[in-house]
Amino acid sequence: MTEKKHDLNEFLLNTMPVGAIVFNHASDIVFCNKHAKFFLDRFTLPGEIAAINARIFDAIKSANLAEAFPGEVLFSKTFETSPSTWIFKFVIRETPEPLVAVFIIEDTISSSVDLNKIRQQSSLTRREVDVLRRVLDGLKNLEIAQNLEIGEQTVKDHLSNIYLKLGVENRFALMRSLLNCSSSYHDS
């Protein structure tokens, strides 16, 4: 692989909006992108992943993968500390070396709110919307800072601006306001 193609692959894998973890036949993680690392910093991988991986590799070894897994392999899960539902989608490579990729997709609260409309109506900057999206999805200030690669004080400054522009006093009031009024942002 040329250096340029490697850089492009690295860029795509680390900026795609889903987590990607690749396991080998020994269930070792052989690759983990930025979003997957962020997920693993917050949560433990569900036990179902190891169980499904074991069944997939057993099916590959006994040459009955198509019979054992005739369709898409995925499941969803919620975690106690997250308002989101997480979807885990498995993609299987049989040859030359068997691998299982697990894509981690977050079904977020922010996806149900028209943040672009809120941005326009409230004169939010794009960065303030980035912060707002992560607040809606339950991230703490430090997690937002790490996710956006900015300082925690910068997150606090953006939040202060958001509160002022949306006429709320704190994070709870912000969440309540946006979730209660989300239909007006969708329809107006």
Overview of the molecule:
It is a single chain. This protein is of the alpha+beta class and 188 residues long. It folds into two domains: 3-107, Beta-Lactamase, CATH 3.30.450.20; 110-187, Arc Repressor Mutant, subunit A (Orthogonal Bundle), CATH 1.10.10. It contains ten helices and five strands. The chain has helices at 3-15, 34-42, 47-61, 65-68, 115-122, 126-136, 141-148, 152-166, 171-180, 182-187; strands at residues 19-23, 29-32, 73-78, 85-93, 99-107. It has a five-stranded antiparallel beta sheet. α7 (141-148) crosses α8 (152-166). The model is unreliable at 183-188 (pLDDT under 50).
The tally of strands reads 5
Q: What's the domain count?
A: 2
How much of the residues is beta strand, in percent? 15-25%
Radius of gyration, taken over Cα atoms and rounded to an integer in Å? 20 Å
* H/E topology pattern: HEEHHHEEEHHHHHH
The percent of residues in helical segments reads 40-55%
Helix/strand-derived category reads alpha+beta
Average pLDDT over all residues? 89
The CATH C-level name of the largest domain is Alpha Beta
CATH topology of the largest domain: Beta-Lactamase
- What spatial form do the alpha-carbon principal axes imply? elongated
pLDDT under 50 segments (min length 5)? 183-188
Which sheet architecture does the biggest sheet show?
Answer: 5 strands, antiparallel
Q: What is the first-to-last residue Cα distance?
A: 50 Å
Give the CATH architecture of the largest domain. 2-Layer Sandwich
* CATH 4th-level superfamily of the largest domain: PAS domain
Number of helices: 10
Report strand order across the widest sheet.
Answer: 2-1-5-4-3
